């Protein structure tokens, strides 16, 4: 690419992303400036559409006016740097937490959950761990065994119990898309609750569930690369020496059945 062409492209990009009307550099005639205004509007509208697509439940819970205002502020503060618009909005939750005014802090967790589930849905496929693989493991290999999550799994820390409202809104959106006209649903009020959410995609459908503290600590450790010995220590700390072995094995059996652990190499 020539230097002249690159400079021209950068000038055009600056004009499209500049919210100020007109042509400060004096590069365009009046007709071109009117055309540029159309492109500016279309560019921002497409970014808002991308944010709405990536954060469908957040858009519902906030309402059109507030979500559009948030989107406009985000677009101004964080211009798109991605070749694919799919990834635009990756920093929206952090933006809401640090720079934007939101009506309720639970909205930040809704944004985190929206983005996490979209990432789980888009993640690459890999093979799930089979129970037979563990049954064939030699006893001396268990202490250093490291369970690994699949690419389509995540462990998300949340500060609010947003899952009940999220489920209601997600179900409402599906019924609306199916043509079943309904009034806006009644939403349970979120309560402050520091906890972890497990999300995964065993096949084609994304799933999630909230984790109670003991299992949540174990799942987080799996994602951090802890070995079986360390998981046993965490289980003892959570449930005591008497209950820990049975609880840990029960968790492992459930994880394998759910299909979010990756097959051993």
TrEMBL record:
GO molecular function, one term: DNA binding
Keyword DNA-binding applies: yes
Species the sequence originates in: Roseateles flavus
Occurrences of domain Putative DNA-binding (ranges): 9-96
InterPro entries: DUF2063, DUF2063_N_sf
Keywords: DNA-binding
Protein name: DNA-binding domain-containing protein
UniProt xrefs under Pfam families: DUF2063
Entry annotated with the keyword Transmembrane helix: no
């Amino acid at each position: 690419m020539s230097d002249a062409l690159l400079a021209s492209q950068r000038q055009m990009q600056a004009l499209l992303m500049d919210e100020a009307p007109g042509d400060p550099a004096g590069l365009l005639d009046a007709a071109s400036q009117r055309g540029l205004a159309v492109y500016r509007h279309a560019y921002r509208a497409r970014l808002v559409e991308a944010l709405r697509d990536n954060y469908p439940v957040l858009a519902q819970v906030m309402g059109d006016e507030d979500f559009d205002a948030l989107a406009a502020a985000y677009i101004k503060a964080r211009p798109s740097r991605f070749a694919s618009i799919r990834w635009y909005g990756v920093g929206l939750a952090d933006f809401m937490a640090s720079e934007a005014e939101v009506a309720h802090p639970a909205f930040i967790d809704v944004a985190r959950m929206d983005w996490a589930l979209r990432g789980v849905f888009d993640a690459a496929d890999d093979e799930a761990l089979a129970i037979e693989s563990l049954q064939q493991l030699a006893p001396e290999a268990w202490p250093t065994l490291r369970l690994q999550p699949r690419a389509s799994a995540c462990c998300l820390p949340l500060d609010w119990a947003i899952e009940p409202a999220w489920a209601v809104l997600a179900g409402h959106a599906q019924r609306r898309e199916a043509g079943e006209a309904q009034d806006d649903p009644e939403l349970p009020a979120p309560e402050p609750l520091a906890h972890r959410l497990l999300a995964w995609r065993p096949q084609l459908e994304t799933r999630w569930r909230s984790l109670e503290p003991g299992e949540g600590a174990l799942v987080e450790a799996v994602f951090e690369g802890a070995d079986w010995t360390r998981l046993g220590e965490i289980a003892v700390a959570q449930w005591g020496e008497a209950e820990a072995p049975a609880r840990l094995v029960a968790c492992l059996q459930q994880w394998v059945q759910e299909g979010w652990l990756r097959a051993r190499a």
